[in-house]
Structures are given as C-alpha cells and as structure tokens.
Amino acid sequence: MELHITGDPAADKLLSDDAFALLTGMLLDQQVTMESAFAGPEKIRTRIGSIAPATVAGYDPEGFVEMFKESPAVHRFPGSMAGRVQALAETVEHEWGGDATAIWTQGEPDGKEVLNRLKALPGFGEQKAKIFLALLGKQCGLRAAGWREAAGNYGQAEVFLSVADIVDPESLRKVRASKQAAKAAAKAAKSAGH
Asked: Which domain holds residue 34?
C-alpha cells in the first residue's frame, strides 16, 4: 500500500510502512489540516529517532511536549496531543504487544469488532474510529467482514468524506469540498434553530 495524504514523500512513506505512525496521524487529525496531522508522525520520528510505540511511550513526558512545540509544531495543541500520543503508544505497547496491526488482525476480527477495538483506544471516539476503519478497508487491504457497514458513511464506495478517500490531489480537493459543505450545512442548521 502506498498512501498519499500529506504531500510530503517522507511522511507518506512512513504512514504507508508503519501502522503505528498511521494510527498516530489519525489521532492527531483534529483542529488541524489533515496534511499537518498525518505529517506529525514523521516529525516525531525525525526528532526522537523512532515512532515505535515502546520508544514513544517511554519518552520523558515533559520532553515529549517540548518536542511537540518545536517549529514546525507537531500539533497546535502540543500539551494535550503529546499526552494522547503517549497514551496511545502505551496502549499499543501493553495491550497489543507493540504491534498496531494486531488491533485489526489479531483473532481475525470482523468490522464491528475492529471498530470496537479502535474506539477503545485513547483519543479515538466513534467518528475517528469509523474514519480509520474506512482508511484500513479502502487503502490498507483490510478484509474484515462487514467493515464497510461498521464504518458507516465513511465506508461507502465512491464518496469523498474523509482521509480514507484521499489517493491523490484531486481526491483531496473533493474531500475538502465535502467537509466545507458539511460545516456550512451544520452552521445553517444551527442558525435556523435559533
């Protein structure tokens, strides 16, 4: 699999090659652009020498926050997001033997079970878990039965709703447009309610 999310070949290669990096990018994908969020794991790897869950989990928490703040910042909320990344690393290390892929492969889980496992991770709510499940199914070769249904709207074919649907600059543009339309619709619904 070869992902094209960030526009940075090194960052995209890391996401393509390292499941924990991809999981971390998804975790960081809030209140920043998708490209910035998914470029985060490469910044972490470059700055501390590894993106391995054991390394990230074992890193000095204060030092980890400082590393998040280095320019360009890993995330615009370095304190809270650094803590979440370390909590995610600790969970993957201790509950999944340091292997992020075990979350969606161990015991051959179906789509619903993969979704439940993702929702149990620190920083992963319902929507984030569904988007990541769709990304696994659409671009990472996940063959869990029922993954499309478990991913909800994000699992549909031929939609441009999330990072799961980005394969090139054109699909990125379409995802951006659908996100902007959804925001506008939500804003219009909110003002109509007042």
From this structure: 9-155
Q: What is the pTM (predicted TM-score) of this model?
A: 0.93
- In terms of C-beta density within 10 A (0-12 exposed, 13-18 middle, 19 or more buried), how is residue 168 classed? exposed
**Backbone dihedral region of 160: left (phi > 0), alpha (psi from -120 to 50 degrees) or beta?**
beta
Give every CB contact of residue 72 below 8 A, 6+ residues apart in sequence.
43
Work out the burial of residue 125: count CB atoms within 10 Å of its CB; fewer than 13 is exposed, 13-18 middle, 19 or more buried: exposed
Residue 2 lies in a domain: no
- For residue 85, what is the domain's CATH number? 1.10.340.30
Do 19 and 136 form a contact (C-beta atoms < 8 A)?
no
- pLDDT tens, residue order, the chain (194 aa): 789 899 899 999 999 999 999 999 999 999 998 999 999 999 999 999 999 999 999 999 999 999 999 999 999 999 999 999 999 999 999 999 999 999 999 999 999 999 999 999 999 999 999 999 999 999 999 999 999 999 999 999 989 999 999 988 889 889 989 888 888 888 888 888 76
